[in-house]
Amino acid sequence: MKISIIGAGIGGLTAAIALRKFRPDIELEIFEGSPELKAAGAGLALAANAVAAFDQMGVKDEVLAVSNVLDGFRILEASGKLITQTNNIAINRNLQTISNFAVHRADLQRCCWRKFPICRFT
Ligand SMILES: Cc1cc2nc3c(=O)[nH]c(=O)nc-3n(C[C@H](O)[C@H](O)[C@H](O)COP(=O)(O)OP(=O)(O)OC[C@H]3O[C@@H](n4cnc5c(N)ncnc54)[C@H](O)[C@@H]3O)c2cc1C
Fold first, then answer.
1. Domain 2-121 belongs to what architecture?
2. Cβ within 8 Å of residue 94, ≥6 positions away
3. Ligand 1 lined by 35 (C-beta under 6 Å)
4. Residues 58-79, buried b or exposed e (16+ Cβ, 10 A)?
């Protein structure tokens, strides 16, 4: 079987890494429309489910090395009024995981790209 992935964004690259790891029998190719890999935007805030996924994909250490683990975060109304806040230090301790972290898109994309550097620029 052959699978073609359209787009070497974070979604396409992580799908390729996961497929290569869990279905090495499948032939994969990625087609990217941009002439070079450019991560749009700035930061991404991700949670424990992403940590678990990156762990399974074998890129957790690389991703966390370029990330900032968040001690906590607050969600505010536009006026500055507090809606909710989270103490990640306590959650991390209780669950023995990293519950929230922030990473620059370009750094994350680079980590994924290093694991799956085969891509056709269309
Ligand atoms: C302002 C903003 C903030 C966000 N913050 C967060 C956050 O904090 N946490 C979080 O989890 N998510 C966040 N998101 C959502 C997150 O950015 C997206 O879910 C994620 O980038 C989607 O990844 P993707 O690979 O599917 O798409 P993209 O990253 O958009 O990549 C798509 C790729 O496909 C290529 N492409 C498109 N069409 C074609 C084509 N026809 N042929 C070939 N190549 C093609 C593009 O060039 C691009 O490289 C945010 C989004 C925005 C806009």
1. 3-Layer(bba) Sandwich (3.50)
2. none
3. no
4. ebbebbbeebeebeeeeeeeee
Query: Can you tell me the distance from the alpha carbon of 71 to that of 85, in angstroms, rounded to the nearest whole number?
Result: 11
User: Do residues 112 and 59 make contact, with C-beta atoms less than 8 angstroms apart?
Assistant: yes
Model pLDDT, residue 41: 72
Show me where the domains of the chain are located.
2-121
Q: What are phi and psi of 100, to 5 degrees?
A: -145, 140
> Given this model, what pLDDT does residue 39 score?
63
27-60 pLDDT tens trace: 999 998 888 767 667 899 999 999 999 999 999 9
119 lines ligand 1 (CB under 6 A): no
Residue with tokens 């620029």: 121
Question: Which residue's C-alpha comes closest to atom 29 of ligand 1?
Answer: 9
Mutate to test the pocket of ligand 1, among 4, 5, 10, 70 (most ligand atoms within 8 A of CB): 10
Q: Is 46 in the pocket of ligand 1 (CB under 6 A)?
A: yes
Atom 3 of ligand 1, residue of closest alpha carbon: 44
